[in-house]
Amino acid sequence: MTAVQVVFVLLSLVAVVSALLVVTTPHLVHSALWLVVTLGAIAGVFLVLAAEFVAWVQVLIYVGAVVVLLLFALMLTRAPTGPQPDLTVRRWAPAAFVALLVAVLLGATLVAGFQDVRLDLDQAVVGSAEVTGETVFRRWVLPFEVLSVLLLAALVGAIVLSRLRSEDGDD
Amino acid sequence: MAGSSTTLQTAYFGSYVPLLAIIVVGVLLVFAMFGGNALLRPSHATPEKLLTYECGVDPVGEGWAQTHVRYYVYAYLYVVFAVDAVFLFPWATVFAGLGWVSVAEMGVFIGFIAVGLVYAWRKGVLTWT
Amino acid sequence: MTTLAVSPLLSESVGDFTKPSIEYFDLSPLLIIIGVALAGVIVEAFVPRRLRYVVQTLVAVVGTIAALVMTVFVALGLEPRGDNAGFGAIAAEGAIAVDGPTVFLWGTILVLTLISVFLFAERHLEGGVTAFAGQAAALPGTEAEREASTKGLEHTEVFPLMMFAVAGMLLFPASNDLITMFVALEILSLPLYLLCGLARRRRLLSQEAALKYFMLGAFSSGFFLYGIALVYGYAGSMNLGDIAEAVSGTIGADPLLLGGIGLLAVGLLFKVGAAPFHAWTPDVYQGAPTAVTAFMAACTKVAAFGALLRLFYVGFGAARWDWTPMIWVVAILTMATGCVLALTQSDIKRMLAYSSIAHAGFILTGFVGLNAVATPGTAELTSLQAVLFYLVTYGFMTIGAFAVVTVVRDSSGEATHLSRWSGLGKESPFVAGVFAFFLLGMAGIPLTSGFTGKWAVFTSAWQGGAWPLVVVAALLSAVAAFFYIRVIVLMYFSDPVGEGPTVVMPSVLTTIVIAVGFAATVALGVVPGPVLDLAAHAGQFVR
Question: Membrane-spanning residues where (chain A) (predicted)?
Fold first, then answer.
């Protein structure tokens, strides 16, 4: 086992264990914080797989922005921060069964599909910002531009849903 | 994995060795500081010490306060601009090759989001009330 | 040990970076609609409140008409690809296919959008305001809500949001690669989630509908995305043409491909409301403002079926024998669920929701027709032609029927409970007559467009050898006819309960919608020829 593989296995272990903690911890906020660890470990896995840009996107967007959004959403609720065992304990058996089933199905599909495929790290760093830039700004320029429409629609929607009109003015 | 000692790979992983080192040192530092603290300090645990410190006054209620939904827009604006910023990195790498075309592409993208920002501004979302 | 295929695209060096080409003319309907949405946001930001409603409506109507006109020009300018290979071209660096079916679907979506805008703009029924919440952030039943309603506030943002959704709907069936398709799926869904939660009356029901739609929709998007990943792993490309090539080069079943097809199908079948992914439909159709229900029942279904057709006929066309059994099962399940559960409904909007599920099943029947490729000059109906035609008939009937639902009211808003509809035939024979006609159309009675639509999909399926499916579908149509006719009987042969339903005279806007829906249902029932020909002329998908 090379050093890279050792790091990969360690990161995967961290990701899996913290993902389990996300769904088993009775504290909602702890759950969100464990999610940070999971997403961070997955970013590390991307990094080891030479998908450099994707890894940093993962850190910036998921570990940074999405978790912040999640925590904000938690703070909007009236839910107490104390342990909430009924959120995690109730009906754990069917939940575990479904999760296991999904994991086995997807795992089997991936293993069956990719068992002969090896990533050749000598060729190029496939997930670098250069490669991404080249594809996004040429091949996928239309979906890229349309993505900004999505962001705009979501922004307008968020404001419509959340803003109480101030009593004065015209707006 | 064939040819694992090629220069490209070494350079790629080599560039992340300092990062790994910083993470390891950072984690060790935390343990060292808390460990040293625990070794050196006297330990007289009382329930009062476990209370939340609220400027010397006894804490009231819980640590949890429900926030108003309008603050969600700030979090959301942050997400929008994080996504926006992420696209700037690959853009910077192709800028030299594509020149003004890429400026136009990025301009359209940011322009759309800027319209959203103008809308937010006109709706008074950006003022802190 | 193979090496992970680096697609040719990635291996090109940065040096020969060429300018991406965007065919602005071919994409003009889409670009116009995006521009209209953008203009709507700017109007919302700068135009004084009292003018906003008028300006927004005008912008939306004029923009949609402009997009429609451009669609016609694009349709006239489509280049034949020679040798029975359809019309049109791949545009925007391979992201979009502007071909016959695309233009046909664009036209359909834009016409349906235009009349939906009228429904959105209806202000007469609520006494001078639109049917959308005055202030979405105000909690139901609070002082803030009462204040918003006394001040006559209204969210005119619904118009730009609707246009965003339309932009997604135009992009969805036209997308020629999976990434574009996913982006389109999100753009069409997100504004719809929001619009569902903006009802002025029964706001808790509306918000519940929005949340349910959002949660399940996000879930189905996840399925879709995972499907993309698997298909990419299989084909090494996101492009539908490349996927088709990879599929036709494979012998036997590949788990990655089958898994990918399955997951992508889940994502799309959710959007069209096919069983077993239909559970959201009744709740959402019931809770959403009726104008939004009409819009999404008609336009989303057209767009999503267009995308489903393109993905399965272009991308997975060569794996047809792998997915046909799945479509059979889903079609039968969907028709059965829709027809049987519609019998038990006591709410008119829920009943129409189950009816739309049943229609999704009938459309899926047309999916398995034999020839996806048209042979010109023969009397054969291709699957594509039949499905496109059915979508048109279904869209007009649905919008018309929901438009009628908006005008039957009592003191608490729309009277959606079925018992409130009893005796409507005596109260206002005209509205009841129109509604009865729409119901007969949905049941597929001859001389309505519903009959010709069903005839088209059943014929194409029969010619494709799927006769057992056609027999089941015909039996289930008979079951479906029962619940449509039950409502007609209720309207004409029952006595009004209590003070009875009242029909509020709508403004000219809703009247136009009902009239257009009615006219289309009659016209397509009596002379289906022109639209069927148009669907046949659309040819096939280019790749």
Answer: 6-25, 32-53, 59-80, 92-114, 140-161
